[in-house]
Write a structure and sequence with these properties.
binds 3-hydroxy-5-(hydroxymethyl)-2-methylisonicotinaldehyde, 39% helix, globular, two-stranded antiparallel sheet, alpha/beta, nine-stranded mixed sheet, 22% strand
């Protein structure tokens, strides 16, 4: 069985980050190691969040793993607690470059704004960290911050996003997967671009009238699982989109969805059938 690592926070309440990535990766048949970057009482959209940063534990944990020669087939990083922590994870990524598939979801913001607690210094450092990724998975806000372009003047057509994907891929010279592209009111798309092969994947699905919490984290986890299992980029993106859509469909009538994420538990069987393939992206 392949072993993967997911590095992100535990938000006790709110169904995002580790609490969605772990079950998704497990159900996809991957031994899943976790590294919590922070412990939060809820995700940061709630008011008055309690947050305990785990920075001081991260180096000793990596150190121990190295001493035990623990290896991973892929490592994904999401929400981080501090710039200092980002530096430590970046060094760990550099140990694994070329040996494990390295994914970064540059979790910083949404809807054109940075999340609570993040600033220009964090953004600058995130851009540097992103150079380490084989696969970069930003939403539109994060893409705009990484490129230093205005969120309000993002393109209105597919060609415009292809151009931005090419620019973004100069950061990591690898794969970029841009989430949440809405070219019409009824459809939502993901655009993936592979800088070294020129492959472009544009995957569009029906847009449902709600935007619940944590779906970006679920999307990234499915991509990590699918690519680690050797699926082609196109199939990985399609699987991730279809799974997120299934999750949202099961949450449409839930009035608490804005805060508590999606009812992904009911959709998990959808992922059990996802088989192994033999494409490699390292
Ligand atoms: O879903 C992204 C995310 C992850 N972790 C924490 C968050 C957010 C988004 O707000 O607050 C703690």
């Amino acid at each position: 069985m392949k072993r993967v690592l997911t590095i992100q926070d535990i938000s006790c309440i709110g169904r995002c980050s580790l609490t969605v990535a772990l079950p998704v990766l497990s159900v996809m048949g991957l031994e899943t190691a976790v590294l919590p970057t922070a412990l939060l009482s809820t995700h940061t959209a709630f008011e008055g969040v309690y947050k305990k940063d785990m920075t001081e534990s991260i180096d000793p944990i990596f150190h121990h793993w190295n001493s035990q020669k623990i290896s991973f087939d892929s490592i994904a990083c999401g929400y981080l607690g501090s710039v200092e922590q980002m530096d430590i994870v970046r060094q760990y990524f550099s140990l694994w470059k070329g040996k494990a598939l390295l994914l970064i979801d540059p979790v910083m913001g949404d809807q054109g704004k940075l999340y609570a607690g993040f600033d220009e210094n964090y953004r600058r450092n995130m851009r540097i960290f992103c150079q380490s990724a084989d696969v970069l998975l930003p939403n539109l806000t994060e893409m705009a911050y990484l490129l230093g372009v205005d969120y309000r003047s993002l393109p209105k057509d597919r060609e415009g996003y292809e151009q931005l994907a090419r620019e973004l891929s100069r950061i990591n010279n690898g794969i970029v997967v841009i989430k949440g592209i809405s070219l019409t009111r009824t459809m939502i798309a993901v655009l993936a671009y592979h800088a070294r092969t020129g492959e472009i994947v544009f995957c569009e699905r029906e847009k449902l009238a709600v935007e619940p919490f944590g779906t970006g984290d679920i999307f990234a986890a499915v991509c990590q699982g699918a690519l680690t299992k050797g699926m082609e980029l196109k199939r990985a993106v399609e699987l991730a989109m279809d799974f997120v859509l299934e999750c949202i469909k099961r949450t449409m009538d839930d009035p608490k969805r804005r805060w508590y994420g999606v009812n992904f538990e009911e959709a998990l069987p959808f992922l059990i059938a996802s088989e192994n393939d033999s494409a490699y992206y390292i």
